[in-house]
Amino acid sequence: MAKVICIYSPWQFLFWYDRPAGAPSRTGGAGGAEGAIPEIDDLQFFDDVPTVWDDTKIIEGYPGKYVSIARKNGDKWYLGAIAGTGEYKLSLKLDFLDENTTYRATVYSDDKSLNTRTNVRIEDMEVNFKTIFEKNILKQNGLAVIFSPVEK
User: Fold this and answer.
1) For the chain, percent of residues with pLDDT exceeding 70
2) How far apart are CA 67 and CA 87, in angstroms?
3) HEC secondary structure over 106-142
């Protein structure tokens, strides 16, 4: 999910080892799967992420070790953070956010302890431009965040 934000491409796609619901059921589906893609919260992320950006900020990075990139579309911000060959202790001041706005941050991260199909943890928190956002990212892993303004 982090790659969708970090790697710019107006042509985004979702590759899944299943078939869409309603597709003909026959042996030899995508990736050999017999099932169908159910509607799950994790996939909503791909509906919510735009393919073009109004602003891009490289927050921090070091080749092969880590990167954090923030992108804006309309009044929403998107953060992608990826770890390379080692764990990435992410600690970012969210000063790229608009100063007088409170945001709901929806965080998508990998959690192998979850007993779900995708092991994606989705959590919400309230943040602003003064917030220090901290997460540990395992090596060769990442996280994605969508920052949506909170209606007053």
Assistant:
1) 80
2) 12
3) EEEEECCCCCCCCCEEEEEEEECCCCEEEEEECCCCE
